[in-house]
Amino acid sequence: VGKSARQLTPGFELRFSKDSLFCYLPYIGRAFNIDYASRDNVLNFTTTDFELIPKTAKKKEQSISLKPQGQREIREMNITLYADGYADVQVFFNQRQNIAYRGQMTVEDR
């Protein structure tokens, strides 16, 4: 996805559980054939309507796919969680340049 992953700084986050998805990530990239009048950040949303698909686990990492429904520009979000506490996030768009992030993960007990 793109050239390299963007290192996330404090203040941005992607948070999900089995029944909710909260996304607040920066978007820097090219947009193709979209409504330029909209200044909304496509990666700033909360939803309870999404599909969470576990992927094949590898040694010291786990991958999942999130497919948010009702987010017309986002096709899929792939997340790889590593044993060292970091996570990679790839976001695939319909009408924008794809983007990747890398950041530290935290696990919340519920």
Q: State the helix count.
A: 0
- Which overall shape is indicated by the principal axes computed on the Cα atoms? globular
The proportion of residues in beta strands is: over 45%
Task: Let me know the number of strands.
Answer: 9
Specify Rg, calculated over alpha carbons.
Answer: 14 Å
Which series of helices and strands comes N to C?
A: EEEEEEEEE
Query: Strands of the biggest beta sheet: in what spatial order?
Result: 1-9-8-7-6-5
Distance between the termini: 33 Å
Main beta sheet = 6 strands, mixed
**Structure class:** mainly beta
Low-confidence stretches: none
- Give the rounded overall mean pLDDT: 85
The percentage helix is under 10%
Quick rundown:
This protein has no helices and 9 strands. It is mostly beta strands and 110 residues long. A hairpin with a 5-residue loop joins β6 (61-68) and β7.
List the helices and strands and how they pair.
Elements: E1 6-7, E2 13-16, E3 21-24, E4 44-47, E5 50-54, E6 61-68, E7 74-82, E8 86-93, E9 99-104
Parallel strand pairs: 1-9
Antiparallel strand pairs: 2-3, 3-4, 5-6, 6-7, 7-8, 8-9
How would you explain this protein's 3D organization?
With 110 residues, this protein is mainly β. Helix content is 0%, strand content 45%. It is built from no helices and 9 strands. It has strands at residues 6-7, 13-16, 21-24, 44-47, 50-54, 61-68, 74-82, 86-93, 99-104. The chain has a 6-stranded mixed sheet, with no helix packed on it. Strands 2-3-4 form a 3-stranded antiparallel sheet, with no helix packed on it. Strand 7 (74-82) and strand 8 (86-93) form a beta hairpin. It is globular. The termini are far apart.
